[in-house]
User: Fold this.
Amino acid sequence: MNIKADLIDSDFWQPEFEVETRNDGTILMRQKGDLTGYLPTLADYLDKWADQTPDQTWIARRGADGAWVRITYGDARQQARHIGGALLALGLGPDRPLLILSENSLEHALLGAACFYVGIPYAPVSPAYSLVSKDHGKLRDIAAVLNPGAVFADKASAFAPALDAIAADGRHVLAVQDAVEGAVLFEDLLNGDAALADTARLEVNEDNVVKYLFTSGSTGSPKAVINTNGMICAMEAMVRDCYRFLTKTPPVVLDWAPWNHTAAGNKVSYLVLTNGGTYYIDDGKPAPGKFDETLRNLRDVSCTWYFNVPIGWEMLVDQLEQDAELAQTFFKDLKMMFYAGAGMAQHTWDRLRAIGRKTTGREVLLSTSLGATETAPFALSCTEVQEKSGNVGVPSRGLLMKLVPNGGKLELRLKGPTITPGYYGDPEKTRSAFDEEGYYCMGDALRPADPDDLSKGFFFDGRVAENFKLNTGTWVAVGSVRASLVDAMDGLIRDAVITGENEAELGALVLLSEQAAKMDKAGLTAALTEKLTQAAKAATGSASRVQRILVLNETPSFDRGEITEKGSLNQRAMRTNFADAVRELHSGGPGVISV
Assistant:
């Protein structure tokens, strides 16, 4: 049996493309055939599954006693109707959205469902804006743009300073527990008038705004990306067309990623909802003291689709190799492994594929994709088995892809039903985000895997604006240099920030892998020096040769704009925010490792 062919034929698309190359080198590419077969609103999907499979678990989270607390599709609709009626009675509506400050929870999920069921936009924002920020500057900006009718925080007392910072006349506070004075308790929302919700439900359509998702705001205030019913439902139709196994068996997902990001908040959560599956909230994460909870959950839940960031996969593959029982449970129903957030080291890629084949006797697809908050986010995806990591795939059905020559690279632009109408309250930034033909300008560059056959997919080739020149005037292609360095360091680092603007040579601020972080200092320094020297010898010139590195011990922050909406490191923001480390690196300060 041809394992690869069997994998692709049975569970994934086999797209065919129309490609046009203009005289100026611009490439236009789209899949043949139209995007069809999807309902116009998320409320339609909730109704569909509440009618067809009312007892199927929609979402679950472990309770205080460790048992899973489950909400079925039937219960979800019923509670969404009551909560929706209560929110409408509080004065919320299209121009008075709900602002959610706290993290993933069952209450958060039900509030979101209630909002999209009755046509109230909602905006989940990073809890760090409330709990880490000292001046709540970004949160104030968000509240000023949206003018929310209510603000939800599960434990209102913990969010009290943030709630005070954005308090306004007529603005309600919603809470589950530890409520501040005047707050409306979540349990009271469950007594709302469902008849109000039913009336509002009749008016919900594909043009209604489901939510506002905020970009990282690395250069000023966060932008409110408009997400409509139409763009989200079209996006999930693209996902379903690509991952065809979703239509055969309701998906089962365990996910820790926050819903204020488009990946989990849109793609994953609505992947489950629109296909009648089950979403298990993972209160663990790939962080010290948190990963044991993820392992506990993975021993209990066999996923059909599983996502993690590369450092999470590094931590997980160690456990899968050591624990055959965990591996059996993990791979039992799994159709694909998905990574995003950063480049995956080749050794992690190889080990994951190997343990998948050892456990199942078949190839379990390991894949990534490319998208943005403005694309809902699903845009490009790779479903061909790859020997190396990094291929982000080809454009989804229904999308028009334009690749424009820009500084020796191909700049990515997209048009289609999944592209945002723009940024709420900011017509100027909306206009600047689109080109003269109406394509959304991603700001990313792509490199064809095979220039003679674009159906083989593309590699992320960096942000168009992140490249710089050495003091010799030589341009540095940051994306390719970073990818080459991560691979050459052979699992010692998980990511890198390339430095050297107006310097004589390249350097890098590096983030250690889990494996390297456990090594003693002398052994780590020796290993890093050896791999860096080998990489430098293999480089072809000053614009690709990294001569020195410095280990970063501080985790990059989404809230400081150091991590993009797509989860990759924001190279320019990192170089700016770690300017002292960059100066130390190029002046030869302590801790610098050189060729």
User: Anything to note?
Assistant: The CA atoms of residues 210 and 581 lie 42 Å apart. The first strand starts at residue 17 and ends at 21. Residues 1-6 have pLDDT under 50 and may be disordered.
